[in-house]
Amino acid sequence: MIGAYALNNSLFDIWLMLGFGLFGFALDACKIPTPPLVIGLILGPILDASLEQSLLIGQGDSMIFLHSPISAVLLGIALLSILQATPVFGGVAGLCRKLRRGTRDAAARKT
C-alpha cells in the first residue's frame, strides 16, 4: 500500500489498488485464469492497431485477410482452435465418438 500511495500521494491510487486486488480475488475464487487476461490486455491495443492498418491497406475490404493462402490457412487454424474450446465442439466430438462406437459395435456383431 505504501508503494501505491508513494507514487502520486493520492488516495485514489490506493482505492484503485484495492479494487484490482478484489477483482483478482474474485477471478481466483471463480477459478478463472488470470494470465490470458493479462496477455489480452497487453496484446489488445497492438491487435487493434494492426487490424486498422490492414483494413486501411485493403481499403475497408475484410477479404484482404483471405487473399493469401497462408493467411487463409492460419485463420482456419485459429477458428478451429477457438471452436475446440467451446462446449458445442465438445458435443459434436462426443456425437462422433458415439457414432464411431456404434459402427464398431455393429461390425463386431457381424463377425
Describe the structure.
The model has no long low-confidence stretch (mean pLDDT 84). The chain starts with a helix and ends with a helix. With 111 residues, the chain is mostly helical. Helix 1 packs antiparallel against helix 2. The radius of gyration is 24 Å and the shape is flat. It has 5 helices and no strands.
List the helices and strands and how they pair.
Layout: H1 2-8, H2 11-29, H3 35-57, H4 69-84, H5 87-110
Give the % helix: over 70%
State the secondary-structure class.
Answer: mainly alpha
Query: What is the overall shape?
Result: flat
Share in β-strands: under 5%
SSE sequence, one letter per element: HHHHH
Give the helix tally.
Answer: 5
Distance between the termini: 74 Å
How many strands? 0
Largest sheet: none
Query: What does the radius of gyration come to?
Result: 24 Å
Low-confidence stretches: none
Overall pLDDT metric: 84
Concise summary:
This protein is mainly α. The chain has helices spanning 2-8, 11-29, 35-57, 69-84, 87-110. It starts with a helix and ends with a helix.
Question: What keywords describe this structure?
Answer:
111 residues; mainly alpha; 80% helix
